[in-house]
Write a structure and sequence with these properties.
198 residues; Rossmann fold; 6-stranded parallel sheet; two-stranded antiparallel sheet; 12 strands; globular; binds zinc ion
Amino acid sequence: MKRARTGSGHRPAAPLHWGQAGGWIEAVVGSMFSGKTQELIRRLRLATIARQKVQVFNHALDTRYAKDHIVSHDSSKTPSQAVAKAKDILELVEPETQVVGIDEVQFFDEGIIEVCETLADQGRRVIVAGLDQDYRGIPFPVTAQLMGVAEFVTKNLAICSVCGSPANRSQRLSNTKKLIEVGTGDKYEARCRACFRR
Ligand SMILES: [Zn+2]
């Protein structure tokens, strides 16, 4: 039987399938108003159309809209399960689930990295969406690590509310110093590097 050969050695070439046997991680990151959740929902919908078994999780802290849905700023939504700890996800994922979506991943504890790796190692497609920087412009460690281990990283930009340039920072409009403040349009706006104020 004729075998395809690589440039070096005599091992047969790897098959050209993607994700045929194993899973992978996709990270969709960016500032507020960059369409992260919208993109997550879009990918999950396409999987659903293909009749793949999908499960979606968000953090119990993310109470902006509803506990049993993730909702993007343009009001598209999809059912989800709220969990308090990363490892809760492993207990809730059903054996036949092929695609796992996780929204606002920066809310989770550091265990989320191992959880995502475990799910991908089990042969599942894992799609996480989250903020890459906090209101001070400092990267969220959890998101940064997930970007490091993900096969695919999509970095979305918003539009600066001041000058209209591409924006990758979230300007907090209130004075609170809490690292995580759950909020929508009235508490934050997207800013570019030049218009962002620390
Ligand atoms: Zn600007």
